[in-house]
Specification:
By secondary structure, the chain is mainly β. The chain has one helix at 2-12; strands at residues 15-26, 32-58, 61-72, 83-86, 89-93, 98-99, 104-110.
Length: 116
């Protein structure tokens, strides 16, 4: 039953994303620095936008904000603070992923808006 549900969910994941994490490297001057590295590339996924609410006003326009949820296979590893790139958009993981038998759900925020 779980295998069948998992296959069905994977058919629903039409997009592809790249997942980046951080790795400590020793710089030229002997200082340890954080470097962004690709953890998993071209991962099948789906983005869902939920809970749209009023956002920032720009002139006469209102830009809505809401929750962005990333759906991936349950086996995909997503460390805290991961950066996710989908098409030309970039997001940062907003907290712990919820892992189910069939899939993983991760709440994302647009990159650069983490403190907003």
């Amino acid at each position: 039953m779980v295998t069948r549900a998992k296959r069905q969910l994977e058919r629903w994941m039409e997009q592809r994303c790249d997942i980046y994490g951080w790795q400590e490297v020793l710089g030229e001057n002997g200082v340890v620095e954080q470097k962004e590295v690709l953890l998993e590339g071209q991962v099948p996924c789906r983005i869902s936008y939920a809970g749209l609410r009023e956002g920032n006003k720009g002139g006469d326009l209102l830009f809505p904000k809401g929750t962005v949820v990333l759906f991936t296979a349950a086996e995909v590893e997503m460390p805290l603070g991961a950066v996710v790139r989908i098409d030309s958009k970039q997001y940062r993981q907003a907290g712990e992923s919820r892992r189910y038998q069939t899939h993983r759900e991760t709440v994302l925020v647009p990159y650069g808006e983490e403190q907003a």
